[in-house]
Design a protein that fits this description.
By secondary structure, the protein is α/β, with parallel strands linked by helices. It has a single domain, classed as 3-Layer(aba) Sandwich (Rossmann fold), CATH 3.40.50.2300. About 40% of the residues lie in helices and about 20% in strands. The protein has five helices and five strands. The chain starts with a strand and ends in a 7-residue tail after the last helix.
Length: about 130
């Protein structure tokens, strides 16, 4: 695991491009994935220091991608920053498996600071 590596999972190419440029510019190695399955595979292969992910499809028990990442022994310990436009209290509650929940649209500096804190082993202040 590279302590300055970030896996960015988001179906929106513009979002991936913006966050990738910002994180690369600040010394992070970014691996980007456009979908959930690709993201899960990249998480297992890359073992990044932090995962930044769009939440995709909510389920009755939580968000599918969070359940998949935290339920896999290979990825369970990786801190996750969850991004979503779904920001109601019930949505935040279901996102409880994430280490930090950020509401979209999210200022790029917020994402950068959260990644920096989690890569340094700090509490992101969820």
């Amino acid at each position: 695991m590279n302590p300055r590596s970030v896996l960015l999972i988001d179906p929106d190419r513009d979002t991936r491009d913006i966050y990738s440029v910002l994180l690369n510019h600040n010394g992070f190695r970014v691996v980007a994935a456009g979908g959930m399955e690709e993201g899960l595979q990249s998480a297992r292969q890359e073992r990044p220091a932090v995962i930044v992910t769009e939440l995709f499809v909510p389920t009755a028990r939580g968000w599918t991608i969070l359940e998949a990442l935290k339920g896999d022994a290979a990825t369970a310990a990786i801190p996750i920053i969850a991004l979503s436009a779904h920001a109601l209290p019930a949505d935040r509650s279901r996102a409880g498996l994430a280490d930090l929940f950020l509401t979209k649209p999210c200022e790029v500096d917020c994402v950068l600071h959260a990644v920096q804190r989690l890569c340094a082993g700090g509490d992101a202040g969820a």
